[in-house]
Amino acid sequence: MEANQKTDVLILIANVLLVLSALPTLLLALETRRSGPEGPVGFHLLTAPLALLQVIAIAIAIHRGILDFTHLGRPVLYFLLVPYLIAMTLLPVFGLERNFVGPLSKAAMVAVVLACFATVNRLPGVLLATAILSLASLGGVATVASLLKNSIQNSIRSAAADSERMTAFEESQSKFQAAEWAKLPENPELWQLIQFTHPFDKELKRQCLEKIAALPELEQKMIALLDTGWAEHSLAYLDDHYPLRYAPLTPAYARFLDKELQEWAPQLRHNPHAGNWAVNLYRHFSVAEKIIKDGGDLRAPLQGWLRLFEEAKGLGMLKHRVKAML
Q: Residue 113 and residue 178: Cα distance in Å, rounded?
């Protein structure tokens, strides 16, 4: 007797949930208005709770063993409620379509709601009702699969488009750099060559590095360059290819760091997005590390940078790097 009463209570709860879900769902099925040009924005905030009420009601039916005749096992049946939830969240959205999908989706909404009542209450035609609910779950699986497929295809297309744009950019830049390289005098100065140390064309890069390495008094020329506006252009070369000792560059590089600090401080200090500029400063301290490892003393300018990094946000990595050097 107690077990029967418990079952009756579960049936009552399931039916109450279905009524709460069915009435708004049927109203949506009868809705004749269409979504605006922006689409059914936020519509899922209404349909998802309605679908969830149906899911709970069907879960009660599974718990009562009403669907045990399917021989799928209750864990599988519970799992199928996930795609069912997705399907019944999206089905009313499809009902807003202007083509044949709209009326078809609305008819499916009515059929599914009736199938829920038939299943929960063991009404005649429960086999058909269960088949309809299974189709709804399969529809959810198909929807998720379609979304994943579209997402993967869009990612592939986006990656291919990015690759094509990058290839086109590299080709145009290679042509431009080759044309500018051809304009250099027969014996160019370091400041002229320093612009071509990292081109897209590997052969041009090889020629440029050879010309720089062959410059007489390269060390003195580099020291002089660090006191000019071309200093920042030399950072990549100093970091990757400089063939001489770094310690002799110390005084000039200290002046360069002081000058850069004055220019960067107003932009970074108290800037909540200062971390976005970190990539622009990595080379500054990579070269500084090489100079310090070779015996140079950059403590004075680095202390100024450390104070700035302690005030700025999002530059913790650079702050720890400078601390390590000090």
A: 70
